[in-house]
């Protein structure tokens, strides 16, 4: 019996009339600057981008929670992604360029979260395998991508709330 030297599944795209390389699904990534960090949020995980919403601080909130803001008629808890990305033992944040404009990125999900960022750099398209996972990164980091000369930290939208609330009580007990 003669042994086949090719994988039968490899001929499937040609037999179906498809091109040699089937188009893989690309995703749009919002590239943002928060402090000294370049961060990425997948466009399908963001609800909206708003400018200069009124931010109201919350008493007893953890440092990562900046307050609440009304974005497109809905109240959102606003998080500081620069603080979420800082290592627990890192006491000194490297400052980014000062920003005269503040943007709020409303995130999809039940928690109604938003991120405060200093700059919206734009949108890039990438393949899922372009996001390189980091073993030593916290749960809020999905991975990183190299774009031109920039390293962009891709946020894990599903872990933002838990990471922001880490080490604090959900509700204050009445005395």
Structure description:
It is a single chain. The chain has 175 residues and is mostly beta strands. It has a domain at 35-87 and 97-165: CheA-289, Domain 4 (OB fold (Dihydrolipoamide Acetyltransferase, E2P)), CATH 2.40.50.180. Helices cover 9% and strands 38% of the residues. The chain contains 3 helices and 11 strands. The protein has helices spanning 12-15, 81-85, 160-165; strands at residues 27-34, 37-42, 46-51, 55-56, 65-71, 74-79, 103-107, 113-117, 119-126, 141-147, 150-155. The strands form 2 sheets. The chain has a 6-stranded mixed β-sheet with strand order 3-7-8-6-5-4. Strands 9-1-2-11-10 form a 5-stranded mixed β-sheet. It is globular. The model is unreliable at 169-173 (pLDDT under 50).
Features:
175 residues; mainly beta; OB fold (Dihydrolipoamide Acetyltransferase, E2P); six-stranded mixed sheet; five-stranded mixed sheet; 38% strand; globular; disordered C terminus
Please give the oligomerization state of what you see. Answer: single chain
Number of helices: 3
> What's the CATH H-level homologous superfamily of the domain at 35-87 and 97-165?
CheA-289, Domain 4
Please state the second-level CATH architecture of the domain at 35-87 and 97-165: Beta Barrel
Proportion of residues in extended strands: 35-45%
Biggest sheet overview: 6 strands, mixed
The termini sit apart by 83 Å
Note the run of SSEs as H and E: HEEEEEEHEEEEEH
The residue ranges in which pLDDT falls below 50 over 5 or more consecutive positions are 169-173
Strand element count: 11
Structure class: mainly beta
Q: In what order do the strands lie side by side in the largest sheet? A: 3-7-8-6-5-4
Shape: globular
Rg is 21 Å
The percentage helix is under 10%
Q: Which CATH top level class of the domain at 35-87 and 97-165 fits?
A: Mainly Beta
CATH T-level topology of the domain at 35-87 and 97-165: OB fold (Dihydrolipoamide Acetyltransferase, E2P)
Nearest-integer average pLDDT: 81
């Amino acid at each position: 019996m003669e042994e086949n030297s090719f994988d039968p599944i490899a001929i499937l795209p040609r037999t179906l009339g498809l091109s040699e390389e089937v188009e893989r699904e690309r995703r749009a990534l919002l590239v943002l600057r928060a402090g000294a960090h370049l961060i990425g949020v997948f466009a399908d995980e963001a609800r909206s981008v708003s400018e200069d919403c009124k931010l109201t601080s919350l008493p007893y909130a953890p440092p990562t929670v900046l307050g609440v803001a009304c974005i497109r008629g809905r109240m959102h808890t606003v998080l500081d992604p620069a603080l979420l990305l800082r290592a627990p033992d890192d006491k000194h944040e490297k400052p980014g360029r000062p920003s005269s404009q503040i943007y709020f990125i409303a995130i999809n999900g039940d928690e109604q979260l938003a991120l405060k960022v200093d700059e919206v750099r734009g949108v890039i398209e990438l393949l899922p395998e372009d996001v390189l996972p980091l073993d030593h990164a916290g749960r809020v980091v999905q991975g990183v991508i190299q774009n031109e000369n920039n390293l962009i930290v891709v946020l894990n939208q599903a872990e933002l709330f838990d990471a922001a609330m880490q080490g604090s009580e959900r509700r204050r007990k009445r005395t």
